[in-house]
Each structure stands twice: as structure tokens, then as C-alpha cells.
Amino acid sequence: MSHFWHKPINFVASAIVVFGMAGFGTAVASASGGAVHAAGTGSIIYSDYERAPTLNPEQFNGVATGEQQQNFAPFGIFYYYNQSAKLEPGVFTKIPTPSKNGKTWSMTLRKHLKWSNGMAFTNKDFKFGWHVGLNKNSGPNCAGSCDDISSITLVGTTGLVFHLKQVSAVFLQQDMPLAMPYGWSGIGGNQSACLASASGCNAVALKVWSDKSFNYEDSSYVTFGPYQVSSFNNGSLNDTVFTPNPHWSSSFLGLKAVKPLAQLEYLQFGSQSDMIAGASTGATDATTDYTVLSLPSLEAADSHGQYQILTHATFDPEELFMNVYNKKVNIEGGPSNVTNPIANVKVRQALSLAYDRAAMESNAYGISLSLAKKYSSVSNPFVSTPALRNPFADPAITGAWDPLRHKDIAPGTSKAFADAKTLLKQAGFAHPTIYITTNGTGNTARHNEVDYLASNHAWGKIGVTVKYVDEEAGNLFNDWNGGGLGPHGHFEIMIFAYTNNPPYPDGFFFLTESQFCAQTDHSGNAEQDQNWSCIRDKKVDNAFTAGAATTNVAKRHKEFNIISTEFNRNVYWSMLAMRPTIHTADKHVGGVSVNPFVGGESNWDPYSWFFKS
């Protein structure tokens, strides 16, 4: 699996940081009222086949870490989107309206908030966390997000006024600092000096981001969520037990009271097939991390009705990422210094025209064409499918751009194939060989995708020969200093997925703006240099800047439509499929909810789960 920030890179602007949980949100159902949890009842086991080497989300931000740390919320729970894409205030009393042309945000914490040790959760925790996030020993964690804050004014113990250097339309969702428990000795350092200045936070930042023994793997750590870690086994397979936080109240988030579980357990399986077998025998109550390719196996294994299969649309695109920068490339495990056809825009336009997205999904994933059409999109990077539409997707984009006809047309049609051949000839690549790189080891879906593209139903029909390059995830996704093939541009086309996509476009600027091409930046900042296609398009850069500089929705739409047009016409990325999220839940799991905006593999909501006997 992969992520909004290319797994396993910690993409600081994902928000995913809406929760201050370093990357994952929780799909809580909004309601009023709430009471302190009573003693828990029942036990539920939930599972994935992904492993977390630590539960410290600042040291490893992969799937399994998110699926576990969402239960204990080490850095608080801020603004988040619910299942209806409505922004909820989390620990704050309401959604604030900015003042001073969008550069000042004032907010108030709910009353009587507490950390898991009973210590008051106050506004100082945000100022403390902000300074730690600005400290160089944290990355800095605030780079590209909460470094937009110029100062924070504390009002009493619950009031906060954030003064920004520039307008941030998604400050609440994306740029809030972490809340860190000010006054807890376990986090170390001279905390009064840290509260006063980021330069005083060296020791705290080192402990949280670099001290491997600081791991959140037992109940001695001060956290915020409804559960605490009771035990953590980080051997070859994770087995983590959570028990109720005695100081948690559902009123902390303005939620309807839900009686907690006496015990919640994350049990990792060695493979997806092992997990399906475990679900069918009752060894686990809830499972996730499936693709549509898994549906036949899930249905076949459930002959006795042990579980229900839940399928929901998301904004998780499986994409072809084009290397538009390098005229020559070195293909890992293949030729060196080979001419890169993908650097030519006409080649990219031809490839986009020469495959039907829904037909590709149906063939590659073994699903019906009608189901595939529900999850098909031609728009990028803000995607829209019949099953779920991004509010910022441009409705004017109706197909693949055909420069010969000067309009969008349906891809994979006879007209599209004919024009694609003409474009290849015009580009000087009448019969190109194209290399597709991905982490497809053991991933049948990825192999099937490439096979379809290479076939006479798609690129083979226009004279393209496709070569498949299978790489380990680490080789692809390491940062610049780690020699990752992605940031170094050692590919022509790369396939992976972004998940956990929020319903606003701003986070994509790390992935698309010129300044974040690792090949030209060389800063070594993996949290920022995510533009592996090395797109250098001034229209995209300027539109992101203008869209982020206003809170006016109509103006933001106008700017982001410019980006969508540039992507469609220049084919920087090309959509393969939207990946629905698929879960199983047995009869013991009550309160199952799924949020398409904070999701991918980990968009269950254990906060609202209760035990059904």
C-alpha cells in the first residue's frame, strides 16, 4: 500500500495533520453532549498485514502506525472532516472565521480537557508544540505548514490567537501545530525555555524525533485519545493491546457518549491471505487494506457469513507519474543514459489518449465494467468519479486532452487511438519503448495494470512497447539522501498511489510546485521535496500561490481549475483508477463508520466502536 505522501515518507502537509496525529484522521460521528467513559465492555481485535516498528508517529509514519496511534492521539485531536465532508472543531468550541484578511485565527478550547495522566490540556500545549515543531531537531516538523505562524497569543488557559505571516485558506486543516503535553517530565528538556522560544526546544525535539527509546509503547506516555497502549509487541508481527484512557471524555470532542471497549487489540497478520483466513475463522473482528482485486477472495472465504464486506469510495488515486524533467534516464536494473520519451509532451498526450480508464480497471482488477466506471476519473490532480467527487475538481474536464482536435475526447476510442499514433510520429517516437517502474512485488493488481497498458487494448495498439521494472518500496521511496529512485528521477513512468487525500487541493503543492523537485532543490528535505515528476510549470506554481492566498471559495476554484487544465493538457500524471476502501467487520463490531476523506487503509473509526455480544 502507499500513501498521500508516497509511503513511507512523512509528508508534513498532509492532513491528515488535521488531527495533530502526524498523519491520520479519525472518522468520528459528530453529535452533541457526551460523558466521561464508564468502564469498558467487551474486546475487539482489528487487523492489517502492515507492521509498525514503533508507535512514535514522528519516527515512523506508515500505515500500521496510523492505524494504532489513532486510538491514543499522542498530540491531540484538532479540526477534521466527518463522513459528510463537514469540518468539525475537535477540541475547539467552533469553526472560527479568520480576521485581518485571513491572517488571524482566534479559537477557544473546550472546557475541562485532560491528558491521559489527568493533567489539564491547555493553550500552552499548542505554543509548546509549535516551538518544538520549529526547532531544527524536529526536521523542522513545521516546514511548509505551521512555520506560517508568526506568533501565538495565549488568552487565559483556553484561548488561542494565531497570527500568520501570510493568508492560509486551510490553516485549520493543514497548518495547525501539534499539541504537546507541556509540563510532562517524560518529554524532557527545559520546557519553560522551549515555551519561550523554539531555540530552547533542542532536547525535546531530539527526544521525540530521534530517541528510539521514546516510542509510545506503554501507558507511561501522556496521550490524549480514548485509549492508551497497554502493551506492544514489535517483533516480526505487531500485537498491540489498548485499554481505556481513564481521563477521556467524549465531550472533549463534542461527541455522543459511546461506551468504550474493555480492550482493543491490533493484531497483524503476515499476509493479506492470512488475514482473510483469520477473518473467516473469527481470529479477528475487523480487517482492512484491500483492493477491489481482493473482493473475490473475501467473498469466497465468507461462506459462513462470518463478516460483512464494506466498500466505500475514496479520493485515493492510483496514478501514472511521468518523469517530465530528464531527457535521459538511468533505469534501475535496465539501461543507463537511455532517451526518455516521457519528457516529450506529445508522447504523454498520446499515452493518455490510448487507454480507457474503466476498461483498464475492469480487466486489471477482474471487476465488472459498471463497477469500474464508478471509480474512473480523467481529471487530475483533483479527481472526480461518479462515486465521489472532489469539490475542487474541474467539471469542464470531460476526457483526455487531444491537441489535434483542441478539445477533450473519450480516451480509448478509435479517434483517440488514431490521434495518439499521429502524436507519437510528430514527437519522433513512432514506436517507443517505455519503462514503467513500481513496487509491484507480490502485487497482482500492479502487474495487471501494466499488462493491460502494454496490450493491444491500449498502448500496444499505437506501437508502444512496455517494459516492467519491479523495485522494492525502499528503493523507490527513499528520500534524496537515501538514494530513492523517485526523487533522483531514475524512472520514465512510476506507478503508486496517494491515499488519505483531503477534500481540498492545497496539500498537493508539495507534489507539483517547481520548488519541490528534489533534483533541482537538493535540500534533502524529504517532507517537502515530493515533486518527483519534477513538474516546472509557472501556471501551476502561480495558481497554487494565488489559491492559497485567499479564503474566497470562488477565487480558489478559479485558480485550482487552472492547475487541473495544465495537468490535463500536459499529462504530468495520468489516472489509472480510484481505489475504494474495503473493510470487513463481524457481528461484534458496533459503530462502524468510514470516512472517505481520512482514509485509505486506516479510515476506520475505533473511537465510535462498541462491542455487540
The CATH H-level superfamily of the largest domain is Periplasmic binding protein-like II
Query: What is the overall silhouette?
Result: globular
What strand order characterises the main sheet? 7-8-9-1-10-21-11
Rounded to the nearest angstrom, the radius of gyration is: 24 Å
Your description of this structure?
It is a single chain. Helix content is 24%, strand content 17%. With 613 residues, the chain is of the alpha+beta class. The chain folds into 2 domains: 17-265 and 581-611, Periplasmic binding protein-like II (D-Maltodextrin-Binding Protein, domain 2), CATH 3.40.190; 317-578, Dipeptide-binding Protein, domain 3 (Roll). The strands form 7 sheets. It has a 7-stranded mixed sheet with strand order 7-8-9-1-10-21-11, sandwiched between helices. Helix 8 (345-353) runs antiparallel to helix 11, helix 9 packs across helix 12 (444-454) and helix 17 (538-548) runs antiparallel to helix 18. The relative contact order is 0.17. Mean pLDDT is 86; it is low at 1-38 and 598-602.
In brief:
The chain has 613 residues and is of the alpha+beta class. It is built from 18 helices and 23 strands.
What does the secondary structure layout of this molecule look like, with pairings?
Layout: E1 43-48, H1 63-69, E2 80-81, E3 87-88, E4 104-108, H2 124-134, E5 149-155, E6 159-164, H3 171-175, H4 191-196, H5 202-210, E7 227-234, E8 238-244, E9 263-268, H6 272-281, E10 286-287, H7 295-301, E11 307-312, E12 317-322, E13 328-329, E14 338-339, H8 345-353, H9 357-365, H10 369-374, E15 400-402, E16 407-409, H11 414-427, E17 433-438, H12 444-454, E18 465-470, H13 473-477, H14 485-488, E19 493-497, H15 509-512, H16 518-521, H17 538-548, H18 553-570, E20 573-578, E21 581-586, E22 589-590, E23 610-611
Helix pairs in contact: 8-11, 9-12, 17-18
